[in-house]
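Researcher: We plan to redesign the surface later, but first we want a full-length starting point. Tokens attached.
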């Protein structure tokens, strides 16, 4: 049978090509249907946010539905609005195949709660689903997500539902053991080689299940000493100012440690009346005793969200790119993306790079910086926001000063262009229309 070429996600380095046989994929898919018979027995329609080109999509939106005799919705769902439309098309009997990053965003959307009763099951993979997200989805939709653990190299390895605990149950037909250095060893008919030693450290429980302890390939050498990025991330995320964090190295001749930090509501409120330097110093003071000098990041970027690819994973390359951006994001105090519009409230912090030199003694936000952040946030909200753009009716009306809360509104127009405005409490600051520049 034909071979199928996949690429790894690139979450810990460059993506690598992996060749899998069609026979192994079909065996894996058949085992999924047999092991989770209750998911497929009533033949729900499969709606997915993931593409078939990746291992997760190849199994869950192509081969398993084919074996189970289920209809697959042709669309790749990118928003809650599209999910609602897909559920309506299939009469509210949907097996939803998605990622943790989509579920986290969906929970903040006002229409997501209206889908309660539409899902026969929710399946997620690609990265770890946080416990609070899993339980919140269960409360809102009435369905606790089924999490799948595996890789392009191994296929399906284990599964869990958070209502049953943190432990993972090894998939039927697979033998799992522990390597000498604490990694999980998988002997599976679905894997590209048997046995296969994964890069995930685990601890087995007495009943044969296991707990994930982090990736062993996320150990880096900083000044001749090894630092476990996963362990440091866990410590930082425990801080009450922090919601999520991603550590990555940067620099060529000398490796430095950088952090992308998604702040909690308390963290955002603190930064809005403070400065990047002050908040970084506060985190350093609180965390240094736990993680040490080498473990504390030399560069911190406070961001609204971690970058994720279409597989729902945060890659090393995207993290480094965000670390090296020329300017810190403003603090996003509110974010409401509904339909064709985005409404957000931003605070531009006093020591932001974009204020420097413009002007000494009376800093204001340059127009070019306003357009930079307009594009930055618009691309997070709208997948079709243009890379190359032409601006019409562009007006800069009032100055934006450090510390002032600014309302950003972006809306897709009927002609495919985007209208935007920035406004403060003293009136409109900027507005215009953004059109795609024909190449």
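Model: Full-length starting sequence:
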């Amino acid at each position: 049978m034909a071979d199928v070429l996949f690429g790894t996600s690139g979450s810990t380095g460059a993506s690598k090509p992996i060749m899998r046989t069609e026979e192994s994929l079909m065996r894996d898919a058949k085992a999924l249907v047999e092991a989770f018979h209750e998911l497929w027995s009533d033949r729900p329609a499969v709606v997915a946010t993931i593409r078939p080109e990746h291992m997760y999509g190849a199994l869950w939106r192509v081969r398993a539905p084919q074996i189970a005799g289920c209809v697959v919705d042709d669309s790749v769902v990118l928003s809650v609005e599209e999910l609602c439309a897909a559920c309506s098309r299939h009469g509210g009997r949907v097996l939803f195949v998605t990622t943790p990053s989509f579920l986290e965003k969906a929970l903040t959307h006002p229409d997501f709660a209206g889908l309660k009763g539409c899902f026969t099951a929710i399946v997620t993979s690609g990265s770890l689903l946080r416990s609070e997200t899993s339980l919140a989805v269960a409360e809102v939709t009435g369905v606790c997500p089924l999490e799948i653990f595996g890789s392009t190299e191994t296929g399906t390895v284990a599964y869990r539902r958070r209502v049953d605990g943190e432990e993972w149950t090894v998939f039927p037909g697979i033998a799992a053991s522990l390597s000498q250095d604490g990694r999980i060893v998988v002997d599976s008919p679905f894997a590209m080689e048997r046995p296969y030693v994964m890069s995930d450290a685990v601890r087995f429980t007495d009943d044969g299940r296991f707990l994930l302890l982090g990736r062993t390939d996320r150990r880096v050498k900083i000044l001749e000493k090894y630092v476990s990025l996963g362990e440091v991330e866990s410590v930082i995320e425990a801080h009450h100012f922090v919601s999520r964090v991603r550590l990555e190295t940067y620099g060529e001749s000398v490796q430095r440690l950088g952090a992308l930090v998604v702040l909690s509501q308390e963290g955002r409120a603190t930064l809005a009346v403070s400065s990047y330097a002050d908040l970084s110093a506060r985190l350093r003071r609180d965390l240094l005793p736990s993680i040490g000098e080498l473990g504390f990041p030399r560069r911190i970027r406070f961001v609204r969200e971690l970058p994720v690819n279409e597989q729902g994973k945060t890659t090393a390359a995207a993290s480094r790119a965000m670390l090296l951006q020329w300017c810190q994001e403003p603090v996003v105090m509110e974010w409401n993306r509904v339909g064709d519009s985005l409404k957000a409230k931003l605070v531009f912090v006093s020591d932001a790079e974009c204020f420097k030199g413009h002007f000494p003694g009376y800093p204001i936000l340059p127009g070019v910086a306003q357009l930079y952040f307009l594009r930055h946030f618009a691309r997070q909200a709208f997948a079709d926001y243009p890379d190359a753009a032409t601006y019409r009716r562009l007006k800069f009306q009032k100055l934006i000063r450090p510390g002032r809360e600014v309302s950003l509104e972006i809306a897709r127009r009927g002609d495919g262009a985007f209208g935007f405005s920035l406004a403060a409490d003293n009136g409109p600051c900027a507005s215009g229309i953004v059109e795609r520049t024909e190449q």
